Amino acid sequence: MRTVSPRRLRLALALGAALVLAAPAAAQAMTVYGAASLSSAFPVIDKAPKYNFAGSNQLQLQIERGAPADLFASASPAEPQALFREGRCSRPVTFATNVLVLITPSNNPARLRSVYGLRSGGRRLAVGTAGVPIGAYTRQLLRRMQLTSILNRNTVSLEPNVNSIVAKVGLGSADAGFSYFSDYLAARSRLHVIRLPTWAQPPVRYQMCVVRRPGADTAGANRVMREILSSRGRRVLKRFGFGLTPRG
């Protein structure tokens, strides 16, 4: 039986330990932190990354605290622009737009025909919190329409993201809610939609950036960004109800 020298044994053990430590890192999927309203479209564009969908403001805070995001896609420019100023991500790129709609359960139990019907009060209304993009956009729209009083005349539940608004309305736990058109489209079998005036719409712009942190998969993030901006990526976004910005 051949004897292995102590030096060779130490080298073999060290190499084996290094391979064990390297294996999980190599297998780890690139991670995308995305606005909740992108949860239907993004996995269709690219199913390979690991996704974390939530309110854009929540995701920004997580990234600032060192969360393992590689690509950040927000429903508003405010969050990626703030990270860019902090040196935590690349220069943000606009990749989609959206519009706001008023949604009710499919049978519309409150018999709403327009947003102005909410002035009479007494309804259960689901609205995004002020800090999340859908909440900020909703308040901008209501100010333009001089309808901010409906937030006091109705029973308002403040939701952390648009998915929560759609779920609450779809289940009938709210008589109406403000969401993006793309989210209505994804759940239209359970919802009734009421369009809102074009002149009152705030400019809803989605921006994304590559996160700068130790160990970030920058190459993977740039690859996914290119897929989102590609002709196919834009077709998928359009199919899911998003608007498209002119190609630069």
Condensed summary:
38% of the residues lie in helices and 21% in strands. The protein is of the alpha/beta class.
Model description:
The chain is α/β, with parallel strands linked by helices and 248 residues long. It has two domains: 29-96 and 204-239, Periplasmic binding protein-like II (D-Maltodextrin-Binding Protein, domain 2); 100-200, Periplasmic binding protein-like II (D-Maltodextrin-Binding Protein, domain 2, 3-Layer(aba) Sandwich). The chain has ten helices and ten strands. Strands 2-1-3-10-4 form a five-stranded mixed beta sheet, with helices on both faces. β1, α2 (42-45) and β2 (50-54) form a beta-alpha-beta unit. α3 (56-64) packs parallel to α4 (78-85). The radius of gyration is 23 Å and the shape is elongated. The model is unreliable at 11-27 (pLDDT under 50).
Could you give the topology of this structure?
Elements: H1 6-27, E1 31-35, H2 42-45, E2 50-54, H3 56-64, E3 71-74, H4 78-85, E4 93-98, E5 100-105, E6 124-128, H5 133-144, H6 150-153, E7 155-159, H7 162-170, E8 176-180, H8 181-186, E9 191-195, E10 204-210, H9 218-229, H10 231-239
Parallel strand pairs: 1-2, 1-3, 6-7, 6-8
Antiparallel strand pairs: 3-10, 4-10, 5-8, 5-9
Helix pairs in contact: 3-4
* Rg value: 23 Å
Order of helices and strands: HEHEHEHEEEHHEHEHEEHH
Low-confidence stretches: 11-27
Number of helices: 10
- Class computed from helices, strands and strand pairing: alpha/beta
C-alpha end-to-end distance:
70 Å
Mean pLDDT: 91
Oligomeric organization of the protein chains: single chain
CATH fold-level name of the largest domain: D-Maltodextrin-Binding Protein, domain 2
The portion of residues assigned to helices is 25-40%
Total count of domains = 2
CATH superfamily of the largest domain: Periplasmic binding protein-like II
What's the architecture of the largest domain in CATH terms? 3-Layer(aba) Sandwich
- Characterize the main sheet: 5 strands, mixed
Q: Tell me the β content.
A: 15-25%
CATH class of the largest domain: Alpha Beta
Number of strands: 10
Strand order of the largest sheet: 2-1-3-10-4
Overall, the morphology is elongated
